[in-house]
TrEMBL record:
The keyword Acetylation applies. It catalyses: L-glutamine + H2O = L-glutamate + NH4(+). Substrate binds at S66, N116, E160, N167, Y191, Y243, V261. InterPro entries: Beta-lactam/transpept-like, Glutaminase. It is an enzyme of class 3 (hydrolase). It comes from the Bacteria. This is Glutaminase. GO terms for molecular function: glutaminase activity. Its EC number is 3.5.1.2. Belongs to the glutaminase family. Homotetramer. HAMAP family: Glutaminase. It comes from Pontibacter toksunensis.
Length: 307
């Protein structure tokens, strides 16, 4: 295979993996997510030359869930800079995305911004900073992608709120340590909305290409994030983007990336491309089973990862 022939490689991934059995289950703790058909499968790669390669259900929007934590982190870093690190750490957790157990030992400082506890602290920062954080978050995404159709799915946000006992517990727990400044209700309302954003495999790499392009928007000379911010976000995606499977993802795929319980995964090859894959069944660690396999095939068939 010609390493630059991404379309051929994507076709091969589709052929190899669309027929295989998956043992994982579609996320069901958010009732709305349980309704998504398990056999959806799509992938889209967008390179720095502005070329697109795709297959399957790559234009269908799905719930980005925890992938949104990369956007909220980027916005918080842009707004308050390095003071953010006083309230959230940068170490892998080795624990599940919704773990409460590490907070006690760390005096309420979450291990990193991608586990739920850390994302709730980042959400709190944004709720403090903006008078209308939900509007500001969408504006940020629209500027990043040049696509102002991206928006919240109110049904998914309400569905998650209706069963969000663990996130409520976590926010209250953070508050008991003084690491949650706003009303728990307000922070969770923002957090459930950010998770409810729907995007397709085509749209996600358009947002993530900035992380492959040293912070510059593609096709413009606008420096959207600094080189240092991009370095840090990519480092966090590599070490913490897959919770207690971050090591496995680095080992098998070798790219910074971020997963969500909607079954999406986005990964970035700095200097080359951003890629998204969507397949709803999740493995026991909460990451898309077929999505992980697809990205492993991508870096194996191209012969290139960041390593
Ligand atoms: N909205 C989900 C939650 O807070 C996000 C989790 C995820 O995608 N890993 O539980």
């Amino acid at each position: 295979i010609d390493v630059t022939d991404y379309q051929k490689i994507l076709n091969q991934i589709q052929q190899e993996l669309s027929g295989t059995k998956v043992t994982g289950r579609v996320a069901s703790y958010v009732p709305e997510l349980a309704k998504v058909p398990a056999d959806k499968f799509g992938m889209h790669l967008y390179n720095l030359e502005g070329e697109s390669f795709c297959f399957g259900d790559s234009d269908e929007c799905f719930s980005i869930q925890s992938i949104s934590k990369v956007f909220s982190l980027a916005l918080a870093m842009k707004m308050i800079g390095n003071t953010l690190w006083k309230r959230v750490g940068v170490e892998p957790s080795g624990a599940k995305f919704n773990s409460l157990s590490l907070l006690e030992d760390n005096f309420g400082i979450p291990r990193n911004p991608f586990i739920n506890a850390g994302a709730l602290v980042v959400a709190d920062v944004l709720v403090s900073y903006f008078s209308d954080p939900k509007a500001a978050f969408l504006t940020f995404l629209h500027e990043l992608t040049g696509n102002d159709t991206i928006t919240y799915n109110e049904t998914v946000a309400a569905s998650e709120k209706s069963e969000g006992y663990r996130n409520f517990a976590m926010a209250n727990y953070l508050k008991s340590f003084g690491n949650m400044k706003n009303d728990v209700e307000d922070v969770l309302d923002f957090y459930f909305h950010q998770c409810s954003i729907t995007m397709s495999c085509r749209e996600l790499p358009q947002a993530f290409i900035v992380f492959a392009n040293q912070g510059q928007l593609l096709g413009s000379d606008r420096q959207f994030l600094t080189g240092q911010q991009v370095k840090r976000i990519n480092a966090l995606m590599l070490t913490c983007g897959f919770y207690d499977e971050a090591g496995e993802f680095s080992f098998e795929v070798g790219l910074p990336g971020k997963s969500g319980v909607g079954g999406g995964i986005v990964a970035v090859h700095p200097g080359h491309y951003a890629v998204a894959v969507w397949s709803p069944p999740l493995n026991p660690k909460g990451n898309s089973e077929r999505g992980m396999a697809s990205l492993e095939r991508l870096t194996t068939l191209t012969g290139y990862s960041i390593f």
